[in-house]
Specification:
It is a single chain. The strands form four sheets. A five-stranded antiparallel sheet has the order 2-1-3-8-7, with no helix packed on it. It is an all-beta fold. The protein starts with 12 loop residues before the first strand and ends in a 57-residue tail after the last strand. The chain folds into two domains: 92 residues, Immunoglobulin-like; 90 residues, no CATH class.
Length: 195
């Protein structure tokens, strides 16, 4: 089951295997659509397994849930790889909600944009040098409350506020622009906008 406001994951390969009522081996593969949905149609009744072939990039395994046929639960979950086994399709049955849960794992990265010493290469900076860097945080889609992006500097270094600190929120969703309010006078205000 999805939580309210939770988006599906597109482009995930799902494979169905099993044996139909005629004793024939069945193997089909599909990919989740933009909403995270997938389907297998025109199946004979039989017993099947649905497998999430690869873990989606940027996610770790969550809770998988077997679905139902006419409100009757069927299937058993297993891991490594994610799969729902023992799915008994009755004659004329149409199943729903065979879901593979995923947990967004996020990403936080920092890269140097510029320094006051033209000879600096990579991450090798000199004592006394001023460094401008970019923090990139990948966060889960949805509503965020009281978000803080914090970079703890190593001992002996300090943050120089020259008024140029900015943040940009890049999104592929259709949501309208949102803004953050300054939470305390000691913090540099950040201007957020959606691309």
């Amino acid at each position: 089951m999805r939580d309210p406001g939770e988006a599906g994951i597109s482009g995930v390969t799902i494979t169905l295997t099993g044996t139909n009522d005629l004793g024939q081996a069945v193997t089909r593969t599909t990919t989740t659509d933009a909403t995270g949905a997938y389907s297998f149609t025109f199946l004979h009744d039989g017993t099947y397994t649905i497998t999430e072939t690869t873990e989606p990039s940027g996610f770790t395994d969550g809770i998988d849930t077997p679905g139902t046929f006419a409100g009757v639960p069927t299937g058993t979950t297993a891991t490594l790889p994610d799969r729902i086994t023992a799915i008994a399709i009755p004659p004329g049955g149409s199943g729903i909600e065979f879901n593979f849960g995923e947990v967004f794992s996020g990403f936080l990265g920092k890269t140097i944009v510029s320094t006051t010493d033209a000879a600096t290469t990579g991450t090798n900076v000199s004592i006394g040098e001023t460094v401008r860097f970019r923090l990139v945080a990948e966060i889960q889609q949805g509503t965020l409350v009281d978000v803080q992006l914090r970079d703890n500097l190593p001992a002996g270094l300090r943050f120089l506020d020259d008024g140029s600190a900015r943040a940009a929120l890049v999104s592929t969703s259709e949501e309208r622009a949102r803004s953050l309010r300054r939470s305390s006078p000691e913090r540099t205000p950040l201007c957020l906008s959606r691309a």
